Amino acid sequence: MNKESKIPAPTIERLAHYSRPLESLLDNETPVISSEKLARLCGVNPAQVRKDLAYFGEFGVRGVGYDVRDLLVEIKKILATDRDWTLCIVGMGNLGSAIAENENFKKRGYKFVAAFDSDPTKIGRTLPCGLIIEPTSRIRELVKSLKIEIGVITTRPHEAQRFADLLMDSGVKAILNFAPIQIRTLDCCKIENVDFAVKLEHLAYHIAKIL
Amino acid sequence: MNKESKIPAPTIERLAHYSRPLESLLDNETPVISSEKLARLCGVNPAQVRKDLAYFGEFGVRGVGYDVRDLLVEIKKILATDRDWTLCIVGMGNLGSAIAENENFKKRGYKFVAAFDSDPTKIGRTLPCGLIIEPTSRIRELVKSLKIEIGVITTRPHEAQRFADLLMDSGVKAILNFAPIQIRTLDCCKIENVDFAVKLEHLAYHIAKIL
DNA sequence: CCAGCTATGTGCACTATTTCACAATATCGT
DNA sequence: ACGATATTGTGAAATAGTGCACATAGCTGG
Lengths: 211, 211
Fold this sequence. Notes:
2 copies of one chain form a homodimer. Chain A is 46% helix and 17% strand. Chain A is of the alpha/beta class. Chain A has 2 domains: 3-79, Arc Repressor Mutant, subunit A; 85-198, Rossmann fold. A 6-stranded parallel β-sheet of chain A has the order 6-5-4-7-8-9. A 3-stranded antiparallel β-sheet of chain A has the order 1-3-2. Chain A is globular, with a radius of gyration of 20 Å. The termini of chain A are far apart. The model of chain A has no long low-confidence stretch (mean pLDDT 95). The first copy, chain A, binds a DNA duplex (30 and 30 nucleotides) through α3 and β2.
């Protein structure tokens, strides 16, 4: 593809990290920040911050730093969080419910417009956020009619691939998967897998090494 | 440190990923698996699988493959999931509750033995798993008396650093942080940050690029 | 016991990512 | 107007991680 397809994945993830302290700085009315300070807030190297930003343009002022408000706007533009996204979630267990309610998601424009589960006892229940749990048999219909762009999977692992296939086939463009299984997707659909237990295992490895 | 400190972090994370399909294969009574098949199940390159495992020993049999049961045992030994760990969780909102109940964690030997919140209306409530929510003022005391090794943070971001400091100071050896903020730790304490919204932002970036 | 087959373990080249180091450039005080 | 100062943007060096390709070694059948 074009120039932008060469941008390293770690850079994209760091841009999202940079936006977190920038939001606080904006609330604090701090007008300007240097790469060094921002780097320290995010636990990275200052040159890294500058290089990450330089992939997308020259946002700073030499000898001064970056305007907090402008930089945040630019990062949001890059990450496409300057607009709303419509999502659905499949699997309304504890984790699914927690994610559907999550303030952090709402604040960034990720709107859940449908929630699905295959357990008949859950179907029809209303979540605190106002969503009604729909049967998974309606996934295809609702993804299309509500123009859902991103699907979130919080089912048990053995069902995850099946629902991923169904979501893709119904037209979602990306999937965020919390089931501890590696999901295969077509090229037209981007996937991110999140497995908390992997993080704990990483921690356990390091602790055990020291002991 | 020793030889093991040179092992790449991605290798450790992949070892955890390898263990997922191995568990299913064990249930399926598949006795042996090749690096090629395991790699396909995990979406990585076969040479990568072999190299990752080779850091820790020679677990395979040339011309045959890896014994599923033995390999799983070895990986669990490496990741120190062949034992139980005691954890606590701070911040009993939706996400905190979901994590405390999570089957995936329990199954791998991560036992939550205390849950904390600073909201007086939540304190004293009993969770489905049997834990009683304690006030955060008891963190120091309970971390010590229950010998809690790992702390999980699911508070709002502005409180996260404070609780992390308190947990560290009380003696936890690692922290898993779900608050969208970069937490600073001392060398004696290992940290992993998990921020779902970052993953969504990564997905949004890719989708928006295509459109 | 040996030939043929298969899949591991690994040196090496390649690719990706990070960090350094400094030239370029904006601001400020005189 | 200009020197002193601060901080960016960036080529080049260093570091880290991946994947190829093949020698090595175990198993099977004759």
